[in-house]
Amino acid sequence: MMRIKRSVLLTVIGLLLATNILTLIFSGKGEGKNTESVASIDGKDITREEWLHSLEDKYGKEELKALINRKVMDRLALKYDISVSQKEIDREFAMIQSAYNVFDEGNLQDEKDIKSQIKADLLLEKLLTKDVEISDKELKKYYEQNERLYTIPKMVKLKQIQVPDQSEADQILKELKDGSSFEALAMEKSTDQKTAPLGGDLGYIPDDGNILTQEAKAEVNTLSKGEWSKPVPSDDGYLIYFVEDTIKKNHYSFKQVKEQIRRKIALEQVESPMRAESFWDELDVDWYYGKDQTK
User: Fold this and answer.
1) 3-class SS at 134?
2) Helix H segments across the chain?
3) CATH number at residue 209
4) pLDDT mean values, one per 10 residues, the chain (295 residues)
5) Is the pTM higher than 0.90?
């Protein structure tokens, strides 16, 4: 069910960050600008041209490949009349939310980027499996054997502020009541090193998980979206929680996930690797690095 692994997500976001860097740099590129100094060491300049060349060496090939792949997927989607609905994207994202949170190594916070990758992955799956047929009997059998995978627990998206004592917790509550931003206070005053830089963001916490203490869970369950908690004692002082969003428990029926199951089983039968480069020959792709450099 979970196709987007954390390592893949990290790669995706890394490439997206690289894209942003290159876009910003090249957008300012113009006549005579490549020789301007961007740094100097003991009087010796590092030129803009050297900088851009270094960035191209480091990120250029992967970024060009990603750009080609996006164009390839768009062309093939039109050719075979294949699309990915927002409902499909949201369902996959919900499954990721139920499995990962800020305490997971490599956790990522950018919802827009993750959903973009989900869309790309689903489109690729559909293209690779478009000609594979699986009987309803086999699909139903898989669903019945793995039905638990298609249940999303109740989840709450939390932010937190950790402080060492009750007096500081009371001061945080006062500032919140006076209109201060929870996120800004978390970044400024929270002593939790992992969540403070994220504005206190804990991500989506499953109701049946063990991340929160029983006392914290009981307190959070009394809150509605947009409310913050009273101070909750913890091993490192006190915690104040803020409910940013909630997701109700949901169970997907066989009908809702039938096509998803078909693709999953079909992918095990497809010989082509699950990557957009598998379709380059079909669209006669030619690029700067040559046909033998698609890996």
Assistant:
1) coil
2) 6-27, 48-55, 61-80, 86-99, 111-129, 136-145, 166-177, 182-189, 214-220, 254-267
3) 3.10.50.40
4) 41 50 51 74 90 88 89 91 93 77 52 85 92 95 93 91 96 96 96 93 85 92 95 95 92 94 91 83 87 57
5) no
| In-domain check, residue 146 | no
DSSP of 74-121? HHHHHHHT----HHHHHHHHHHHHHH--TTSTT----HHHHHHHHHHH
Q: Confirm whether 144 is domain-assigned.
A: no
Residues constituting the chain: 295
In sequence order, the 6+-apart residues with CB closer than 8 A to the CB of 83 are 77
Tally the domains of the chain: 2
Tell me 207's DSSP state. Answer: T
What's 36's DSSP letter? S
Structure tokens belonging to residue 25: 């740099």
212, 223 Cβ separation under 8 angstroms: no
Domain carrying residue 196? 154-247
Q: Do 181 and 106 belong together in one domain? A: no
